[in-house]
Design goal:
The protein is α/β, with parallel strands linked by helices. It has one domain: Metallo-dependent phosphatases (Purple Acid Phosphatase, chain A, domain 2, 4-Layer Sandwich). The chain contains eight helices and twelve strands. It has a seven-stranded mixed beta sheet with strand order 1-5-6-7-8-10-9, covered by helices on one side. A five-stranded mixed beta sheet has the order 4-3-2-11-12. It is globular and about 50 Å long. The termini are far apart.
């Protein structure tokens, strides 16, 4: 397994996270009554100012609802407009086809892990997807690679990125399809004092928890949002969103959730009313 590695110059490292796009191959198709292509374009447009200042754009899984090549191709075309100098990195979620995603982003299908270094930081990306399953898993190769990266540079702060949450978020139905070996991942992270944050998607809601000094962060979807703390799926009325992060040389993570305005574009507002 050969990881991808990049060196990104200049502190602080500024990131934008976009997650759970659930793009559909058929432009007329809908997900829970929502045109996910329209919500993606609205979020992508609203995030332009943040992207103009970013060093790295992270797409953290479930980019295509059915893993269709045409959905990835459209996404890749949209991302051509990202400012030059902004690195774009994508990891798969449970709805994705990892091979098609990798092809669309010109990545090797063998690289399930990626490392990006920036001054005093490492950003380590993992692939928690399991073909045909909603829950996630990290195999021993990825966990060993993570251990090695953390041990080799103990002086560098670390942000770990994956699709599935590695700890409960207090929504039983989502906790049932989280990372199935989250305890093992967390035990590995506990061995290293340089881990500052764990960033993920999958849950379609904002979430933050501190565990042993490490910040665990989830981000709203660019399409449908789920109500926190529910036994069964409930669609929230909150608008789609994204997250910005600034990784400072002293190890601080400065982060903010951004959302589309309450006054959605008329086309999207109409679709949301019909979906309720």
């Amino acid at each position: 397994m050969v990881p991808q590695q990049d060196i990104i110059p200049g502190p602080p490292l500024r990131l934008v996270q976009l997650t759970d796009l659930h793009l559909l191959g058929d432009p007329a198709a809908r997900l829970r009554g929502v045109d996910t292509g329209a919500t993606w374009r609205a979020v992508f447009g609203a995030a332009r100012e943040d992207l103009a200042r970013a060093d790295l754009l992270l797409l953290t899984g479930d980019l295509a609802e059915h893993g269709e090549a045409v959905a990835y191709a459209r996404l890749s075309d949209d991302l051509e407009s990202v400012e030059r100098g902004v690195r774009v990195r994508a990891i798969p979620g449970n709805h994705d086809d990892p091979a098609r995603l990798a092809e669309a982003f010109h990545a090797t299908g063998e690289a399930r892990v990626m490392a990006l270094s920036h001054g005093g930081w490492q950003v380590l990306l993992l692939d928690s997807s399991i073909p045909g399953q909603s829950a996630g898993h990290l195999d021993s190769n990825q966990l060993d690679w993570l251990d090695t990266r953390l041990a080799k540079a103990p002086e560098r702060h670390v942000l770990v990125v994956l699709h599935h949450p590695p700890l409960p978020i207090t929504s039983p139905w989502l906790d049932a399809i989280a990372l199935d070996n989250g305890a093992e991942l967390n035990a590995r992270l506990d061995r290293h004092a340089n881990v500052r944050g764990v960033l993920f998607g999958h849950v379609h809601q904002a979430f933050e928890k501190r565990r042993r000094g490490v910040r665990y962060l989830a981000t709203p979807s660019t399409c449908v949002q789920f109500v926190p703390g529910t036994e069964q799926p409930e669609v929230d009325t909150l608008t789609p969103g994204w997250r910005t992060l600034a990784l400072h040389p002293d190890g601080r993570i400065q982060t903010r959730i951004r959302r589309l305005p309450v006054s959605l574009p008329q086309e999207l507002a109409t679709k949301r009313r019909r979906s309720r």
